[in-house]
Amino acid sequence: MDLTKMTLAQLKEVAKEKGMKGVSTLKKQELMERIQETLSQGQEKAPAAEKKPDEEGAGRRKNAGTGKSTGTGKACPGKV
Questions:
Q1: 7, 30, 77, 78: which is deepest, by most CB within 10 A?
Q2: What angle (nearest 5°) sits at the alpha carbon of residue 50, between those of residues 46 and 51?
Q3: d(CA 33, CA 80)
Q4: In the predicted model, what is the mean pLDDT of residues 36-56?
Q5: What is the pLDDT of residue 42?
Q6: Is the pLDDT of residue 36 over 70?
Q7: Euclidean distance between CA atoms 30 and 61, whole angstroms
Q8: Under a CB-based contact definition with an 8 Å cutoff, are residues 35 and 18 in contact?
Q9: How far apart are CA 10 and CA 1, in angstroms?
Q10: How far apart are CA 80 and CA 30, in angstroms?
């Protein structure tokens, strides 16, 4: 994979696929170096088992516990 020919947006997508965090503020050169480090470390370790599609996000609900109210200021019917 030739990182030097990729755009910054493409590099950020690669970083996202690799599970890298905190890369949104990096410059292109810094991001290329971090991705290269991650790729080098990944080759040294044994390949991780891939998650099954039904396991991804298991146990998490989208928008759970956002604490948003309805904005009416009234109690919900049936609740006191």
A1: 30
A2: 140
A3: 58
A4: 63
A5: 78
A6: yes
A7: 34
A8: yes
A9: 12
A10: 56
This prediction's pTM: 0.52
Task: Please state, for a pLDDT cut of 90, what percent of the chain lies above it.
Answer: 44
Percent of the chain predicted with pLDDT > 70: 52
Six-digit token pair at 60? 């998490």
> What does the block give as tokens for 62?
């989208």
- DSSP-assigned states of every residue in the chain: --GGGS-HHHHHHHHHHTT--S-TT--HHHHHHHHHHHHHHHHHSPPPPPPPTTTTTTT--TTTT-----SS-SPPTT--
Place of tokens 């991001």: 31
